[in-house]
Design brief:
about 625 residues, alpha/beta, Rossmann fold, Jelly Rolls, 3 domains, 20 helices, about 20% strand, globular
Length: about 625
């Protein structure tokens, strides 16, 4: 059946498709998700879930304005633990979106969104996984989760790779996975093929204090070791030492962790490249930077199929890039220069980058010819419509249709419930997940049966006497929401200015006493302050002068609040250990949370009597 026939058969009823990504940094994976959200609305009733943050605020506004329903799902490739163990949030997402199909656009290789995949399994929702990057050593990391990751991939209706190289690597590493596998190349939004004109080029160069006749190389990538900015700087240093650096400027665009950015700035200074390298930091005007550039450079150690290369090609920029993963499927000899992978030899890679940059400097006609061929190749291979159609073809095979759709909607035991019955059904699901959680926790902590004698810890719902151990990832991520880092042997650090916890009581509670067992981060000469807001009301303000473990207690009236207590810890002076000489940790931390203990607040009687005795 042709795609047009399939689409005609679906015009009566579009399936509900939920697209989810764990790229919280608005990198290439997130931008692919944006394209899929916009394009697949032709075929499906699309919703989109991602971690809401300041980086993607403009994108989210545009998507919502286009009529797509958005969901704040706080998972990130930077916190794999939360993505794996936040079962309650995964269940809530599926409850709110009620999808019939899932498309998971993943940034953490095979380890992404394991809790959501488990929740989808419980609800019998088919999912298609799109893997953006697959490194050769991926199975050597997070070995304690390997069994769960493999099981999740086996349950996938289909697995999509962004390059044939990634698909072949996956089949070699995991030959036992029987899911359907497809290679679908990334694409470039149509607007990248439109030239902005010489006026934009001149304006951007003037803003950057770059001369009209200087040769500008652009590298736009997140600042991290995998992206290889240091290799590019070493190549430029090599050119400087040979006396050929005159007239060359390198633009580095991209943000990253504080430590990585500091290392990059230091390398620019120590290599005496300050007059030839402009570090721009995070930029949202990459198309304009491409207009102002002559050559695009990407010297990564590993990649999937980088959007940055496709976008540069669409703008008519020739490319210098490392011969890794899917990059050879993007550029050929007519559109750029491939240099050896740094995994083969970093020295040979650096020498080849320097030679390629020198060639581009000395051969104007060849450079222009490569740019023209790059644009033609991008138009032929990396158009957005092609990618959307190929994804739609795969998703159509996963979507329920016709009588099957009606039977699923009317006959599903879960969807028959509503109101209190649905709440009870969700509670039953949490019970079913308990064994899975205990297994994962035992594997991660190396403590078999840790939860066997304390089943209430693995439940979302709490009662008098409950103790939440924040060193246990299952317990932590059943209650912790945004503003927390990964668990450690004795608890979890806050991360940022606001940390959120949700406590759901098993029964309605009028008064509740919450005891926090914590250690504030108070370096010598500093002071820490944290305000406690519960269900929108400030109930306490804590001052800490000493870096020492202590108990802090708050008494909460839950009248009218039902069973849910949402706790916001607003940190007034979070501090990066790196900033105060405590190593290279650049996180902004405030408190280390060990446990939360719950007791019914009996002190309300004393307070009530006190009012009458005044």
């Amino acid at each position: 059946m042709s795609q047009s026939q399939i689409v005609d058969s679906w015009n009566m009823k579009k399936s509900r498709l939920l697209i989810v990504t764990d790229d919280a940094n608005v990198g290439g994976t997130y931008r692919v998700s944006e394209q899929l959200v916009a394009g697949l609305t032709r075929f499906f009733d699309v919703q989109f879930a991602c971690a809401f943050n300041s980086k993607n605020a403009a994108s989210r506004i545009a998507i919502a304005t286009a009529g797509v329903r958005m969901h704040d799902y706080q998972v990130s490739e930077g916190n794999l633990e939360r993505s794996t163990f936040a079962f309650s949030e995964a269940e809530e997402l599926l409850e709110n979106a009620d999808p019939e199909i899932l498309l998971l656009v993943e940034a953490a290789e095979i380890w992404s969104l394991l809790a959501l995949k488990e929740a989808a399994k419980r609800r019998a929702i088919p999912y298609v996984t799109a893997i953006n990057l697959l490194s050769a050593d991926c199975l050597e990391r997070f070995t304690q989760l390997r069994e769960q990751a493999i099981e999740a991939m086996q349950r996938a209706h289909a697995i999509i790779f962004v390059s044939n190289a990634s698909k072949l690597r996956f089949e070699a590493l995991l030959p036992q996975i029987g899911s359907h596998r497809y290679a679908i190349a990334n694409s470039c939004p149509d607007q990248f093929f439109l030239g902005a004109g010489d006026e934009v080029r001149r304006a951007v160069r003037k803003e950057l204090a770059v001369g009209d006749h200087e040769l500008v190389f652009l590298m736009a990538a997140r600042v991290e070791p995998r992206k290889g900015q240091i290799l590019c700087l070493e190549a430029l240093e090599r050119i400087r030492k040979s006396g050929g650096i005159s007239g060359i400027r390198l633009l580095l665009a991209g943000g990253g962790a504080t430590g990585h950015v500091c290392d990059l700035r230091k390398a620019i200074e120590t290599k005496a490249l300050s007059d030839h390298v402009i570090f721009l930091g995070p930029r949202d005007d990459i198309p304009k930077l491409l207009e102002a550039s002559d050559v695009f450079v990407l010297t990564s150690h590993a990649e999937g199929m980088p959007l940055s290369i496709i976008e540069a090609m669409a703008k008519g920029c020739p490319v210098i890039a490392t011969n890794v993963d899917g990059i050879p499927e993007q550029i050929d000899q007519s559109s750029g220069i491939l240099v050896p992978s740094p995994s083969w030899s970093e020295a040979a890679c650096v020498a080849a980058i320097a030679d390629a940059m020198t060639f581009m400097q000395r051969n104007l006609e060849a450079r222009f010819g490569m740019g023209k061929c790059a644009k033609e190749r991008a138009m032929r291979l990396f158009g957005e419509d092609r990618m959307i159609r190929e994804y739609a073809d795969v998703l159509f095979t996963a979507a329920p249709s016709g009588q099957d759709l009606e039977r699923e909607r009317n006959g599903s035991w879960f969807r028959r419930f509503s109101g209190p019955e649905k709440t009870s059904a969700i509670s039953s699901i949490s019970d079913l997940l308990s064994d899975f959680r205990q297994t994962l926790t035992s594997m991660v902590n190396g403590k078999p049966g840790r939860l066997a004698g304390a089943e209430q810890y693995a439940r979302w719902e709490l009662k008098k006497g409950s103790v939440i151990d924040f060193s246990d990832p299952v317990q932590c991520w059943s209650h912790a929401r945004s503003g927390w880092h990964q668990t450690e042997p004795d608890g979890v650090w806050s991360d940022g200015t606001v940390s959120v916890i949700q406590l759901k009581m098993r029964r309605r509670t009028k008064n509740l006493r919450i005891m926090f067992d914590l250690t504030p981060f108070v370096p010598p000469g500093h002071r820490q302050k944290t305000d406690v807001v519960i269900n929108g009301r400030e109930v306490a303000s804590w001052d800490f002068d000493v870096h020492a473990r202590e108990l802090r207690t708050v008494d909460v009236s839950m009248r009218g609040e039902g069973r849910l207590a949402e706790i916001q810890l607003i940190h007034r002076a979070p501090t990066a250990p790196q900033a105060v000489g405590f190593g290279d940790d650049s996180r902004e931390i405030a408190v280390f949370l060990h446990e939360i203990r719950l007791e019914l607040d009996t002190h309300w009687i004393s307070r009530l009597l006190g009012r009458f005795l005044r």
